[in-house]
Structure formats: structure tokens, C-alpha cells
Write a structure and sequence with these properties.
Structural class: mainly beta
Shape: globular
Low-confidence stretches: 1-8
Number of strands: 29
Strand content: over 45%
Oligomer: single chain
Distance between the termini: 17 Å
Radius of gyration: 20 Å
Largest sheet: 5 strands, antiparallel
Number of helices: 6
Mean pLDDT: 91
Helix content: under 10%
């Protein structure tokens, strides 16, 4: 499909039957925290924690799906916080990360015939995690590296990593210490890999200034570099109030960071390698702006950037814009109203997967169920 950027835009087409109460559908346990999801070429996997500190999965393949008790399957330690999940894109197997009751970072992974469990930060002899820390992992095909970043009680960020099935490694000190002049962190970081420039990036909110900060390094090296992205921006920025969302879009070669301000505005920093970031306040571009009550999640669908968040009414809002040019079409959608769907709480998870579907999963405000919205976007004139 050819999209004429100056005369058409894509709008969400969300039929009512594409709102799914996955907890009810799979007779799963109620969730006590936020869901996290990942998508392979054949399966969507969503993980969550229950009130007994156990971790569970919900999986969907085309028209089939089911549930699983990950804690039992992997004989894993209890979870002291929400899990996260990422995909090994070579094996297409997910890895679940979480902070255990022992304050260490744990991993659950799939193996033939079952699941395995490791105390990752303990094996690496790395620092324990802060109580509110949600570890973030990502896979680097270049060298088959798995990398995990998390915050410790002293607000320093730590990196542990491994290659294929080799032992977990740690560089002996905090990432925010190894990167000269780096700020300590508030909240949870996010991280991603730029395969074009072979750059790893860790994005986080600074503890002292609420600016958006970055630590980056060339893959295969340990030369950690630091930037205050907010200070480097071409135009003045607004302070961040929560955890940022970020990714690298290979189609446009753009680094994308989205974050929430204290006033509930959704803002963006965007740049190409070697260029300063450009700042944009999305709430000044939409009428009327829907104030954010949650931190955003973000993803790319081709050269289109998407940010999803909850507003003050618990509605799932999505703001969308073409990656280039700067003055490209933009639009917003109240997904909860479009379905309609049950109100949400906490923070949603969202992604774009085959076959060209958008997905948002969230915790129901009134039932503690995991709900999913699935839709395609259709081209219309504007």
C-alpha cells in the first residue's frame, strides 16, 4: 500500500470483537501488576505477577491460546515486582526478567521440554536491584548478546550481559560510574540496539534534574559514553516525570524517546546518529489534548511512530505521527472509546506485529484482568 503523506492518514479500525478479556478467555488468575508482552513470528507472549508473587504467561497463536504458571514450570524464585519480557530474535524464544524477593535480578527462559531459571545478577556478582526496579532486557543479533539493565538502591544503573549460553558477565562497577560524568537515575531505564551504527543505548530520567539522559557504546566495546539529551536538544525541553520509552527505527534511522511531564504532557526527543535531538510536545499538536496519567509506551510501525498511554479517565490513548518529514501528518485516537473497552489502570504495553496488527494489552481497572485490543489501521483522506 502506498501512503500519500500529504493527503492521507491512517486511522485505527478497531472492531468490537477485537477487544479480548484474555484472563477470562483462558481462565487465568487475576493480575496484581502491569502486563508485559513480546511478539515472535508465531506467538504473542504476555507475562504478569499475581497476588502470591508468582509469574504467569498468557500466549496467543492465531486463533488459539492458553496460560502457564512460569514460577512452577521453571521452579523459580518469587517475584518482588512486575516482570518484563524480551525476545531472542534468533531463537524466537522470550526471556522473562524480574526482581526476586532476594533483590537479585532473575531470568526465566524456555528450553526444549520446559523452562529454566537463573539468578542472573547473583551469578554475575553484580549489585542487587532497587525495590521498585523493573529490569529491562534486549537482544543484540550482532554477536548474539543478551543485555539487561536495572537500577540499584543507590540509583546507579547496572549492566549484566551474556553471549549465547555463556556465563553472565558484569563489568565490575555501575554503568553510570563507568560512563564518565553520567547522572544517577530516577525510576526505570529503557534500552535498545541500533544495528545500523552498532550502538547500544540506555535511556533514563536523571535523578537530579529530571532530564532525559543516555549512555551508549559501540557493540563489542566497553567504552561507555554519556549524554544529557535534554540539554543537547535543538530547542528547549520540558522536564520528565516518569519512565521514558524508547526505540530505534531502522526504516527512518531515528532514535525515538517518548516521556511524560509533570503536567501529563507527552513529549518526544528524536535524532539520527551524529545529530542533536529535536524536541516535540505532542500535547500542543492535538485538539483537545488528552492529559496522560501513565507513562507512555512506544513502538514503530514502518516509518510511523506510535505512543500509547492512559488518560485520567483510564482510557487508552494513542498518538501517531509519520517519522519524516518534521511537518508530517499526525493524529490521535481514543482506543477505549473506539471499541468500546473497559477502563484501564497502571501502564499499558503495546507493539506492532504480524500480520500488520497493532496490539495494546492493559490491566482492567475494575477486574484486574488482562485485556487486549487488536486492530489494523486504514487509510483515509484528511
Amino acid at each position: 500500500m502506498t501512503v500519500k503523506a500529504q493527503s492521507t492518514q491512517l486511522v485505527a479500525n478497531v472492531p468490537a470483537n477485537f477487544h479480548k478479556d484474555r484472563t477470562k478467555e483462558y481462565a487465568a488468575k487475576d493480575a496484581a501488576g502491569m502486563p508485559w508482552s513480546t511478539c515472535s513470528s508465531y506467538q504473542i507472549t504476555t507475562v504478569f505477577r499475581d497476588n502470591e508473587k508468582r509469574l504467569f504467561e498468557l500466549w496467543t497463536q492465531d486463533t488459539s491460546g492458553g496460560k502457564g504458571d512460569l514460577t512452577k514450570a521453571a521452579d523459580a524464585a518469587e517475584a518482588d515486582g512486575d516482570p518484563s519480557i524480551y525476545l531472542n530474535t534468533k531463537t524466537e524464544l522470550p526471556i522473562v526478567l524480574y526482581r526476586g524477593s532476594d533483590a537479585h535480578i532473575h531470568g526465566i527462559y524456555w528450553v526444549p521440554g520446559g523452562a529454566g531459571h537463573d539468578r542472573l545478577s547473583e551469578l554475575a556478582q553484580a549489585a542487587t536491584a532497587a525495590k521498585e526496579s523493573v529490569p529491562i532486557g534486549y537482544y543484540v543479533p550482532d554477536g548474539e548478546h543478551s543485555r539487561v539493565v536495572y537500577r540499584a538502591e543507590d540509583n546507579h544503573l547496572h549492566l549484566i550481559y551474556w553471549v549465547r549460553d555463556d556465563p553472565v558477565q558484569y563489568d565490575g562497577d555501575a554503568l553510570t560510574t563507568l560512563a564518565e560524568d553520567a547522572s544517577t537515575a530516577a525510576g526505570n531505564p529503557t534500552a535498545y540496539y541500533d544495528p545500523i551504527n552498532r550502538l547500544n543505548s540506555v535511556i533514563y530520567r536523571g535523578l537530579a534534574d529530571n532530564n532525559i539522559h543516555r549512555i551508549f557504546w559501540v557493540n563489542g566495546t566497553q567504552h561507555y559514553q554519556y549524554q544529557n539529551l535534554s540539554a543537547l536538544s535543538v530547542t528547549p525541553t520540558l522536564e520528565a516525570a516518569g519512565d521514558p520509552a524508547a526505540y530505534f527505527d531502522a526504516a527512518s534511522e531515528l532514535n525515538q524517546v517518548f516521556y511524560r511531564t509533570q503536567d501529563g504532557e507527552i513529549c518526544e526527543l528524536s535524532w539520527k546518529a551524529g545529530s542533536p535531538p529535536e524536541f516535540r510536545n505532542y500535547m500542543t499538536e492535538f485538539e483537545p489534548p488528552e492529559t496522560a496519567a501513565s507513562d507512555p509506551v512506544a513502538y514503530s510501525s514502518g516509518k510511523i511512530k506510535n505512543a500509547v498511554y492512559l488518560d485520567t479517565s483510564g482510557h487508552v490513548q494513542k498518538i501517531t505521527r509519520w517519522a519524516e518529514p518534521f511537518q508530517s501528518p499526525k493524529w490521535s485516537t481514543d482506543l477505549t472509546k473506539a471499541v468500546p473497552a473497559t477502563p484501564a489502570r497502571g501502564k499499558p504495553t503495546a507493539f506492532f506485529g504480524a500480520p500488520d496488527n497493532h496490539h495494546v494489552l492493559f490491566l482492567g481497572a475494575n477486574d484486574n484482568h488482562i485485556h487486549e485490543l487488536v486492530w489494523k489501521e486504514v487509510e483515509v483522506p484528511f
